[in-house]
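so my prof wants the structure for this chain in the tokens format not the other one, which i didnt know existed until like an hour ago. anyway here's the sequence
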Amino acid sequence: MQMSGQLSFTIDEPDGIVHVVGVGMWSPEYVVEHFRDLDRALVRIRREQGFARVFVDLRAAAVQTTQTTQVLREWTGRVYRVSDRAAVLCASALLAMQIKRAADVRLLATFHEMAPALAWLRQDATGRLSA
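here's what i got, hopefully its the right format
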């Protein structure tokens, strides 16, 4: 099985949201590299904001292998904190289900449209839009 997918992220400095984009299928080793880099970025953002908000665009991603989902579970549990929030945009219900099961993130929601995902991500703990 060929795994030539990509994972990348950028940080929207004005609102502090980390934008992750995933394409195709990823090897477990590639996922580890991605999360090591992401962890450093999240630590910096938490120093500035106290928490991290991550928007994950997986519309071009495939359902991942069992080995890759095990690495996702381990690393999401390692890099995300209780106050962090992750909105995941998925093209298929099957991928959304896989992410919900694999990701070890307390405040995680999956979406099929960008606007509701970003609106949810920008809410504070009480459900109000944060600044």
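also thought this was worth mentioning. The two ends are 44 Å apart (CA to CA).
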